[in-house]
Design a protein that fits this description.
Blueprint lengths: L1 H19 L3 E6 L3 H16 L3 E6 L2 H10 L4 E7 L4 H7 L3 E18 L20 E3 L6 H12 L6 E3 L3 H13 L6 E5 L3 H4 L2 E3 L11 E8 L2 H4 L1 H9 L5 H13 L3 H11 L1 H8 L2
Parallel strand pairs: 1-2, 5-6
Antiparallel strand pairs: 3-9, 4-7, 4-8, 4-9
InterPro entries: ABC_Gly_betaine_transp_sub-bd
GO molecular function: amine transmembrane transporter activity; carnitine transmembrane transporter activity
GO cellular component, one term: ATP-binding cassette (ABC) transporter complex
Amino acid sequence: MKRILLTIACLMLLIQPAMAAKGKVRIAYVEWDCATASTTVAKAALEEMGYEVETLAVAAAAMWQALGTGDVDAMVTAWLPVTHADYYAKVKDKVEKVSVVSGGAKLGWAVPAYVTINSIEELNANADKFNGKIIGIDPGAGLMKLSEQVIADYKLDKLELMEGSGATMTAALDNAIKNKEWVVVTAWSPHWMFGKWELKYLEDPKGILGGEEQIEAIVRKGLDKDMPEVHAFFSNFKWDSPAQLQMVMAWNQEGGSPEENAQRFLKEYPETVKRWMGK
């Protein structure tokens, strides 16, 4: 009996290092709906591959800084070439672009479809209808920096950019639409709100908010040598279409946690997941 127990103990000592051999992956993200969806699904897929994965929700500036210093291994929510241009410029020699997670991304200011103006240039003349407010998100977001520039360049002196979060922005939008009120919000696509409500982007004749963008996966330099399989995963990590990402975002709004919906995606879209894994 003692010999059997000793044999089992020896086997466990051999098995445990093998189980832990794949190591730990750290992914930073900002708590935007699109970033949460992409990050949580990537985490679930990497865990399926046998890795321990830690996700860190931080502000945009901190996300880029952590990647530049090597404190995290990757992110899947870099908005380029405009929104995160300043952040990327500071760390571009220390990081590596590896994939386009989703194309068709866009920034802008959005209003409900029933609002009768169509351009940012018309906001000042209608400031009272918007209660003198532009509903923003977290202050560290690239979209907020661009929005401050929009206010300055269009001389929108009758409106104030309100800081908040993605959640407070959509809550304000929801409340305004229920009451058929005018509201203007800082917005981006892909986002579930465009599927829930009839919205339109206001025209930006000066082009300050930029044109079409893409969401990219960025990893720290050296990941290809330290964890080649993880590097390959992020190089393959791309949604089949912007609509697929928006679908997962919608799931997260309809019910279930992001973690539960990530597992749902792995079960319902195995071919996509296999491609990410290089199978």
